[in-house]
Amino acid sequence: MNTPVNLPIPDAAYALLVALLLLAPLALAGIALVNTGLGRSRSAAQSLLGSLLMGSIAVVVFVLVGAHFAYGPTGYTFQIAGKPWNWIGAGPWFLSGFAEGPIQVQLAVLLQLPAVAMAVLIPWGSGADRWRLASGAAAAAILAAIVFPVVAYWVWGTGWLNQLGLNFSLGAGFQDAGGAAAVHLLGGMSALAVVWIAGPRKGKFPKEGLSTAMPGHNAVYVLFGCLLALVGWMAWNMAGAILWLDAGPAALPVTAVNTMVTAAASLAATFSVTRFRFGKPDASLCANGWMAGLVTSSACAAIATPLQSILAGLVAGIITPLLVELLELALSIDDPSGAISVHAAGGLWGLTAAGIFGSQPGQFVAQMVGIAAILGLIFPVVYLLFALLNRVAPFRVDADGERIGMDLHELGGGAYPEFVIHRDDSYR
To answer: pTM (2 decimals)?
Structure first.
């Protein structure tokens, strides 16, 4: 297995890095709560169980298969214009020899496990109230076995995007310390593919040009999930800075500060936008704004200044509620969790901001090349794989299952059995 960083990690940073890696999975808990709260009450248990199931399958499949393609001392390389283009790794199967491998590789894999789990949780929220557990689990396996490892190798390993600086003098190469591309852009694109394949929820668009409001059932889950995600995100961004940017301990406080202020500025902007447009702030959209700020920080927290981070957060907070409205009203896209606006758009903006704020010549071009490659090459592959999977294991539940709720249909019991939570208004 090859070392995924350029320089050895100082001994003094090991204990700190391990502690950060153990806190990073709190971001998964935050996203799971946000997804559940933004869905309907009759699908709450299925939503949380699906988060556990899909995350678990992604971790196991990545260890068995995906890690082989994500790392390795050798790989599949093409020579183009006299330069090596590393497209995919070829490491040992099943993480064999992992315990005897370099400590840098061990810590990198420890961060990649929650990363692949998060990548599969993002589209799960977009398919809320209609996506079946079985097909969701199969989709998680596909992402963990094939798609995520390829992007991770390009970005974090010795792949061609990471080597843009070395081979073509484009800054430091494509930079994505916190997973804005490998996790959030990939997850957001997967969410778009799921929404297109599964279609909108019953009653969401009853007539041409109209949209029925289907608010999330528990704003407390959503807002608490935002706070929980902050802890994981700060740890994640700091750990990524050490692993992928060779940052020392002295650079970590500003990374943590930038993570928090980006989210705070984004929330403030979304709060102002929704209050101006609707007369009162919208809790779910404000939560989307907060999460979009965190996603934005994934790309630029380790390289920006606090002032630049505030500016990046303000832009994310303004864009997010407007994009949510545009996708729903103009394009009839039913995305209950807002994952497309939060993770795909937030990841794109964060990666762009990293290019704008980068101090090395050519960094912006490197970021644009990476964005174009992921959108142009990875998204079509994800959509094709999901479309083929849908023929074998249909994504959408049948009409009766959607009517009674995913909890009763798939689990045989609801999350709130003491309450009457079912209404048929939208099915008349």
So the answer is: 0.93
E strands in 30-151: 75-80, 83-89
CATH number, position 246: 1.10.3430.10
CA distance linking residue 61 with residue 143, whole number of Å: 9
Residue 274 in tokens: 């929704």
Number of domains the chain is built from: 1
Q: Which regions in the chain score pLDDT beneath 70?
A: 1-13, 72-74, 208-209, 419-428
Torsion, Cα 384 190 18 107, to 10 degrees, reads 20
Q: What CA–CA distance (Å, rounded) separates 271 from 265?
A: 10
Q: Which two tokens stand for residue 191?
A: 């969410």
Taking residue 400's Cβ as centre, other Cβ atoms within 10 Å add up to: 8
Report if residue 9 sits inside a domain: no
Degrees, nearest 5: CA angle 356-361-362: 75
- Encode burial over 302-321: b for 16+ CB neighbours within 10 A, e otherwise: bbbeeebbbbbbbbbbbbbb
Coil, helix or strand at residue 76: strand
Q: Which two tokens stand for residue 347?
A: 């990841």
What whole-number distance in Å separates Cα of residue 77 and Cα of residue 79? Answer: 7
Per-residue CA distances from 70 to 4, 63, 105 (Å): 10, 10, 11
Spatial neighbors of 208 by CB under 8 A, at least 6 apart, are none
Answer yes or no: are the C-beta atoms of 340 and 191 closer than 8 Å: yes
95 within a domain of the structure (yes/no): yes
Contacts for 411-417: CB closer than 8 Å, 24+ residues apart: 411/45, 411/46, 411/49, 413/45, 414/41, 414/42, 414/44, 414/45, 415/41, 415/44, 415/45, 415/48, 416/41, 416/44
pLDDT at 427: 46
User: What is the Cα–Cα distance from 186 to 344, expressed in whole angstroms?
Assistant: 7
Residues in the chain: 428
Q: Is residue 7 situated within a structural domain?
A: no
Compute CA 232 distance to the chain's CA centroid, rounded to the nearest angstrom: 13
pLDDT tens for each residue of 99-123: 887 888 888 888 999 999 999 999 9
CA nearest 305: which of 264, 266, 342, 251? Answer: 251
The answer to the question of residue 8 being in a domain is no
3-state secondary structure of 359: coil
**What range does the domain containing 119 cover?**
15-427
- Give the relative orientation of helices 11-23 and 103-126 as an angle to the nearest 10 degrees: 20
